[in-house]
Amino acid sequence: MGCCQSSFQTETHPENDQTQQQQEPQNRSQSSPGAAPDPAVANGVPSFSEFSLADLKAATNNFSSDNIVSESGEKAPNLVYKGRLKNRIWIAVKKFTKMAWPDPKQFAEEAWGVGKLRHKRLANLIGYCCDGDERLLVAEYMINDTLAKHLFHWENQTIEWAMRLRVAFCIAEALDYCSSEGHPLYHDLNAYRVIFDEDGDPRLSCFGLMKNSRDGKSYSTNLAYTPPEYLRNGRVTPESVIYSFGTVLLDLISGKHIPPSHALDMIRGKNIILLMDSHLEGKFSTEEATVVVGLASQCLQYEPWERPSTRDLVATLAPLQTKPDVRSFPAFTYSIS
């Protein structure tokens, strides 16, 4: 199955505008995989489209190893590359292993479903490609790396407490939006799925809204961080996503990747201070920390029905957002050359 040429991949020349208008039908639909792409850009985000493999090879320098941005590099099971389209838009391209999705129609349908989502808290999906054995997803590229890098591998300064609260709130908003739009399942939510845009604002990667592959493997992390019900039946549920959100809260609180069972033992023993990231040097509100720790504990309950909803997450974290401009801090000073 080949790919259609993406219309917003092609450079625009004024002298060709009239010819293009004559050749291209008006009011294109985005309702199905077979619909022609609409080149319109809403709020700076290109509309969802199908790319050709040639488009993506050109954008990524033929999938050069220099363009790999997967956190574990070439060892990642499904590589992610940064690329740049001819219209200068930067993109992230997730390249699945050969035949991870044997049925191209199923891959296209799932991609189109996720491609309908548009939110300021998401790194939105803007396209896909099916070409022979190739299965690729195309998303907005976020310049300022992952939460994992800023929490676990920082060089200049750690993330301040107010920013950690902002990250938790923004990701809760993203999950709540996806749930309200009929996409409550997010696969393998962790600190590597949270990425920062050019303004230093946290976004949730859209890639987690699709399974890693057709085989249904939805968690690639250590089993110690996997929802207990997934270990029992191998299925992701909306409650499983809440459990994984709880592990992200633990990351934000501690600055380390702590197994939930160990963290819960510390919480039950009222050792909240020991759980807090020492790199914060005590610069946090104990009252706020108590709220976040309590929320993490609720998310990590063994029984899925005891966990809060995405709406509960937003309601709990919203009152803690007292510094709306906290995103602009010195750690985010990267640029794309």
Automatic annotation (TrEMBL):
Cell membrane in keyword set: yes
InterPro entries registered for this protein in UniProt: BSK, Kinase-like_dom_sf, Prot_kinase_dom, Ser-Thr/Tyr_kinase_cat_dom
Keyword terms of this UniProt record: ATP-binding, Brassinosteroid signaling pathway, Cell membrane, Kinase, Lipoprotein, Membrane, Myristate, Nucleotide-binding, Serine/threonine-protein kinase, Transferase
Bias-annotated ranges (Low complexity): 18-32
Renumbered residue ranges of the record's region Disordered: 1-42
GO MF, any single term: ATP binding
EC number: 2.7.11.1
Cellular localization per UniProt: Cell membrane
Gene Ontology CC annotation, any one: plasma membrane
Chain intervals with Polar residues compositional bias: 1-11
Reactions mediated catalytically: L-threonyl-[protein] + ATP = O-phospho-L-threonyl-[protein] + ADP + H(+); L-seryl-[protein] + ATP = O-phospho-L-seryl-[protein] + ADP + H(+)
Membrane topology (UniProt): Lipid-anchor
Domain Protein kinase: 66-321
Principal location listed in the UniProt entry: membrane
Biological process according to GO: brassinosteroid mediated signaling pathway
PANTHER family referenced in this protein's UniProt entry, alphabetically: SERINE/THREONINE-PROTEIN KINASE BSK5 (PTHR45863), SERINE_THREONINE-PROTEIN KINASE BSK1 (PTHR45863:SF22)
Sequence similarity: Belongs to the protein kinase superfamily. Ser/Thr protein kinase family.
Name by which UniProt lists this protein: non-specific serine/threonine protein kinase
